[in-house]
Design a protein that fits this description.
Chain lengths: 161, 256
C-alpha cells in the first residue's frame, strides 16, 4: 500500500549529492508529497538556492528511488511555491551537516545580520572564537570561516531567510 | 483585477528587465573566475554569477508561462536589440573598483526591487521575489563589506573607489529608465514603479556611501544613461552575447 509516509521514508534515503550525510527530507527541500487514489505519486521539491546545480540531479535521484521501490507513476516538480529557508533543516539534518564537517546554520527569526556569521561555532572544536573569511564558499550554500581556537579553516552552511 | 493586454505587456517588460540584467551581469561577474584579486573574491564573484544566472532562469520560466519562448531560446537566441537590460550591466568588468561599484549599485537595486515585489499580485513573481531576497542579502552584504573596507583603507584605494562611485552614477540611474507601462503596472498592483524604486535606492546607497566615508553623487545633476531598457545598447553587448552563445550556436540540440 503506497502512502505519503511510505514515499517519505523512501525519500529519507535520498541523499544530497553535494553533502552525502544529509537526506533531502532532512534538508527540508521536499515541500509536498501527494498520492492519488490511482497511486500516482507527485513530489514537489524546492531549491535551496535558485542557481543550485544539484537540483536536476536531485529530481532524478527522487525518480529513481521511487521507481526502484516498484512504483512507476511518478512526477517530480521543482517549485518556488514554498520557499526554502535554513530553519527547514531538521534537527537530524543539523547533526548530519556536523558529521560532514559543516557548521549548521544558526536558527533565525526572518532577519539575518552580519553578526550571525561572525561567531559560528567551529564544527571541529566547538569554539565560538571564530571569524568569517567570506560569505561565499565552494558551493552557494556555504560560507568560509576560520577558528582562532584550533587554527582550522572550516565551512558553514549559511543561514538563509 | 482583470489584466488587459497592456498590463501583460508591462509585466513582460518588467520581467525582461530583471532577467536580462541578471543574465548579463551574471556573465560579466563570471569573467572574474580565475582572475579575482584574492581567492575569496574569485569565489565570491563566481558564486554571485551563479546565483544571478539561476535567478534569471526562474524569471525566464515565468515569461514562458506568459507565452514567451523557452528560457534557453530567450537567453541564447536573441540579438542585442531585443535585450531589456540596462547599459551598466553589459560593460566589461574593467578594473576591480568598477566591478565593485557596479556590484554595490546593482545589488542594492535588486534587493529593493525584490522587496517591492514580495507582495505583487502576480503569484509566481511573488514567490521568486521572496526566494531571491534571501540570496541577494549575501550580495549586498559582500558589496557593503568591501565598500566599507576600501572607504577606510589606503588613500590610493579610496581615491579610486571614489572616482568609480562618481563616474558611474549616470549608468546606475540608467537602471531606473521608465517603462511605457508604469501606470498599468502600479494601478494593477504588479509593481509600484521605477520612480519609487529609484527614490528608495538613492536614499539607501547615499546613506551607505556617506557612512563608508565617501562623497555621495549629486543625484539631481547626474545625467542618467538611458536606452538599455528600450533595446539601445553599447557596442559591448553583442560581443558578450556572441561569446556566451558560441557553443550553443554550433549545436543548439546538443545534450549536456
Amino acid at each position: 500500500m503506497v502512502s505519503v509516509d511510505s514515499i517519505k521514508s523512501i525519500l529519507e534515503n535520498v541523499m544530497d549529492p553535494e553533502i552525502p550525510t544529509i537526506s533531502i527530507v532532512d534538508l527540508g527541500i521536499v515541500t509536498d508529497i501527494q498520492v492519488s487514489p490511482e497511486e500516482e505519486i507527485f513530489v514537489e521539491l524546492t531549491p535551496t538556492f535558485s542557481g543550485c546545480p544539484a537540483l536536476k540531479v536531485m529530481e532524478e535521484l527522487v525518480l529513481e528511488a521511487i521507481r526502484n521501490a516498484g512504483i512507476d507513476k511518478v512526477k517530480v516538480e521543482t517549485s518556488f511555491r514554498k520557499q526554502w529557508n535554513t530553519n527547514m533543516i531538521s534537527e537530524k539534518g543539523r547533526q548530519a551537516l556536523l558529521k560532514h564537517g559543516l557548521a549548521p546554520p544558526e536558527k533565525h527569526d526572518g532577519y539575518i545580520e552580519l553578526d550571525v556569521l561572525s561567531d559560528v561555532a567551529c564544527p571541529l572544536c566547538g569554539s565560538r572564537n571564530t571569524t568569517m573569511q567570506s560569505p561565499f564558499g565552494p558551493t552557494l550554500c556555504r560560507s568560509i570561516h576560520y577558528c582562532k581556537n584550533c587554527s582550522n579553516a572550516f565551512e558553514s552552511f549559511k543561514p538563509v531567510t | 483585477m482583470e489584466f488587459t493586454e497592456k498590463h501583460v505587456l508591462g509585466l513582460k517588460d518588467l520581467l525582461y528587465r530583471m532577467s536580462d540584467d541578471l543574465l548579463i551581469l551574471g556573465h560579466r561577474n563570471s569573467e572574474w573566475t580565475g582572475l579575482g584579486p584574492i581567492l575569496e573574491e574569485d569565489i565570491a564573484f563566481s558564486s554571485m554569477a551563479q546565483d544571478k544566472i539561476g535567478q534569471s532562469l526562474a524569471l525566464y520560466q515565468i515569461l514562458q508561462e506568459l507565452g514567451e519562448n523557452e528560457p534557453d531560446v530567450v537567453a541564447f537566441m536573441r540579438n542585442a536589440e531585443a535585450f531589456h537590460s540596462c547599459k551598466m550591466v553589459e560593460l566589461p568588468i574593467g578594473e576591480y573598483d568598477f566591478s565593485l561599484v557596479r556590484h554595490f549599485y546593482f545589488d542594492h537595486q535588486s534587493a529593493i526591487r525584490m522587496d517591492m515585489l514580495k507582495d505583487t499580485v502576480v503569484e509566481p513573481l511573488q514567490m521568486v521575489a521572496r526566494k531571491f531576497r534571501g540570496e541577494i542579502k549575501y550580495h549586498t552584504m559582500h558589496a557593503d563589506t568591501w565598500m566599507k573596507i576600501l572607504g577606510a583603507g589606503s588613500a590610493k584605494g579610496k581615491e579610486r573607489m571614489q572616482k568609480a562611485i562618481l563616474e558611474n552614477a549616470g549608468l546606475a540611474l540608467g537602471m531606473f529608465e521608465l517603462s511605457d507601462y508604469e501606470v498599468e503596472l502600479s494601478e494593477s498592483g504588479i509593481f509600484a514603479g521605477e520612480q519609487a524604486l529609484k527614490s528608495t535606492w538613492i536614499e539607501t546607497v547615499s546613506q551607505k556611501l556617506e557612512s563608508f566615508g565617501f562623497n555621495v553623487p549629486d543625484w539631481d545633476t547626474v545625467t542618467p544613461v538611458y536606452g538599455g531598457r528600450k533595446g539601445e545598447h553599447t557596442a559591448d553587448l553583442q560581443p558578450l552575447l556572441d561569446e556566451m552563445t558560441e557553443v550553443f550556436r554550433i549545436d543548439p540540440a546538443a545534450e549536456w
